[in-house]
Amino acid sequence: MPSIRLLHIEKSYSRSAPKAVEDLNLEIEDGDFLCLLGPSGCGKTTTLRMLAGLEDPTAGDIQIGDRMIVSVSGGICVPAEKRGLGLVFQSYALWPHMTVRENVEFGLKLHNMPRDERHAVADEVMSKLAIVQYADRYPNQLSGGQQQRVALARMLALKPDIILLDEPLSNLDAKLRLEMRAELKRIHREFGATIVFVTHDQWEAMTLASKIAVMSAGELQQLGTPDDIYQRPANRFVAEFVGSLPINVIALSGAEKATPLQAWMASVLVELGSPVNVECVGFRPEALKLSHCDAAASSQDLPDRLGTIIDILPTGGNWIIELSVDGEQIFAITGSAPDFASGDTIRLGLQARDLHLFDADGTRINDVQPVLTQV
């Protein structure tokens, strides 16, 4: 199967408006499950639509394998139906007057496949997606999850090498979304196709993708594995966007007088030998280790800090703990029931390796990592 390359892709809808996509360079390798992730209006769906052939870029090239399908400067634009891509929209777009079987066979019929062969292909795909028993029903007789499977089956029946999915799970309830995530993972494993999946849901991206491309304001912020995106965010935007509980961020400048927490963190960085251009420091809520004040000092390698519990919020399998540290709000999360109560003063432990350092532009400072890991 071919790889996909987007080279210096731009999309403008008017000269006065900001570019929807700006100088996007992205390579999607053969067999990847790539998620385009970002907030509404970041350009992720526009990027997918340009790849699919539903929109034309203002500038740039798109290449699939050795085949150039778009070159603005070269005057090349292969029509959508000749790109060999499978596309599933956010809306299922099923024909209401056709049965499930007729919907699944629709593309095959357009390709003039013989009837018996169409039936065999449709039966195979419907069986894999567990909808063969609904073959004679109409879309309005199916649940949302079943309709989603029919839309996927119609696309998979054509055996595309590349599958494009535009927020296909957003119309489903929580239980069905979980089931369909597992279904998509299985489809990727069994069919071996390259998948490009648009979502604003970070947990969909984290659980489904082999790689994630985080976008903001039409620009690519970071491309990496889910672990890279979460553990080594390229900039402050990625750090704050990814994570069901936002990362705690301590700004080291901007106020007329440093707070005690800012002064403490600044002194820690000096002791660690970190660069002088650190503008802010972030740490994930799960990195904080909490203990009672009368407990022994933690084994964390940064000096412990005292804080006051504001509230404890159970979420089912985890507990979110809201804290006040030197008058600033931060959050911790734990997987075991805490034996604290609101108003308790507790000890907070933190390791240097869990710190994320950013400069004034919000860019991650990478050269401090070897220093931190040696502390």
What is this structure, in a nutshell?
27% of the residues lie in helices and 28% in strands.
Layout of strands and helices, then pairs:
Blueprint lengths: L3 E8 L9 E8 L4 E5 L6 H9 L6 E6 L2 E5 L4 E2 L7 E4 L11 H11 L4 H14 L15 H13 L5 E5 L7 H18 L2 E6 L2 H7 L2 E6 L2 E6 L1 H6 L4 H6 L6 E4 L8 H13 L7 E4 L5 E4 L12 E10 L4 E7 L2 E7 L10 E5 L6 E3 L10 H5 L2
Parallel strand pairs: 3-9, 3-10, 7-8, 8-9
Antiparallel strand pairs: 1-2, 1-4, 4-5, 5-6, 10-11, 12-13, 13-19, 14-18, 15-16, 15-18, 16-17
Helix pairs in contact: 2-3, 2-4
InterPro entries: AAA+_ATPase, ABC_transporter-like_ATP-bd, ABC_transporter-like_CS, ABC_transpr_MalK/UgpC-like, Mo/tungstate-bd_C_term_dom, NA-bd_OB-fold, P-loop_NTPase, Transp-assoc_OB_typ2
Family: Belongs to the ABC transporter superfamily.
Keywords: ATP-binding, Nucleotide-binding, Transport
Largest sheet strand order: 7-8-9-3-10-11
CATH C-level class of the largest domain: Alpha Beta
Write the CATH homologous superfamily of the largest domain.
P-loop containing nucleotide triphosphate hydrolases
- From the alpha carbons, calculate the radius of gyration and give it in angstroms: 25 Å
CATH topology of the largest domain, which one?
A: Rossmann fold
What are the segments in which pLDDT stays under 50 over at least 5 consecutive residues? 367-375
Second-tier CATH architecture of the largest domain: 3-Layer(aba) Sandwich
Distance between the ends: 46 Å
- How many discrete domains? 2
Q: Could you say which overall geometry the principal axes of the C-alpha atoms support?
A: globular
How many E strands?
19
User: Could you describe the largest sheet, including whether it forms a barrel?
Assistant: 6 strands, mixed
Helix content: 25-40%
Question: Oligomeric state of the chains?
Answer: single chain
The secondary structure category is alpha+beta
Q: How much beta, percentage-wise? A: 25-35%
Mean pLDDT: 86
Discrete helix count: 10
* SSE topology string: EEEHEEEEHHHEHEHEEHHEHEEEEEEEH
